[in-house]
Amino acid sequence: MKQITLRAIEPEDLDLLYRIENDVELWNVGNTNVPYSRYLLHDYVANCKNDIYTDRQVRMMVENQAGEVVGVADLVNFDPANCRAEVGLIVLNSYRQQGYGTAMLQALADYAQRILHLHQLYAYVDCENKASLCLFEKAGYKVCAKIGDWLFDGAKYRDSVLIQYVFQKKCD
């Protein structure tokens, strides 16, 4: 498996975040469908506490062994009462199909279980996004619900699945 590091967002990441957040091709796979200004992203980087309990989310940059940013990993919609969070990941185009997505999901799972003590992670995945479905299923996520007409791409509604990873309790 690829060796990666999750790290906090730095001001130097602003240009990359700007490109990612304003990439129209990514809007259909996430919950964002509007452009973000540099000012808004700068404000986010400057003011987020990087504390999931305060912000109810944490966004981390993902680096490979050479120190190159290969993607972004998010835990959002953090629900401390029910010990769960929604997963979001972006693997940059030039690093796709190289094992980084699998490594990112594993690193997020380790962080969520060992540091945050979460019970589960979940994601909503477009039924037509076969690469993402395969990635999550390979990482042990299970499809638990199909949701009709969940995503709108500007022209038509598409079905989505709720995919979930529940951490197994360890026996002593």
Automatic annotation (TrEMBL):
<protein>
    <submittedName>
        <fullName>Spermidine N(1)-acetyltransferase</fullName>
        <ecNumber>2.3.1.57</ecNumber>
    </submittedName>
</protein>
<dbReference type="Pfam" id="PF13302">
    <property type="entry name" value="Acetyltransf_3"/>
</dbReference>
<feature type="domain" description="N-acetyltransferase">
    <location>
        <begin position="4"/>
        <end position="164"/>
    </location>
</feature>
<keyword id="KW-0012">Acyltransferase</keyword>
<keyword id="KW-0808">Transferase</keyword>
<dbReference type="InterPro" id="IPR016181">
    <property type="entry name" value="Acyl_CoA_acyltransferase"/>
</dbReference>
<dbReference type="InterPro" id="IPR000182">
    <property type="entry name" value="GNAT_dom"/>
</dbReference>
<dbReference type="GO" id="GO:0004145">
    <property type="term" value="F:diamine N-acetyltransferase activity"/>
</dbReference>
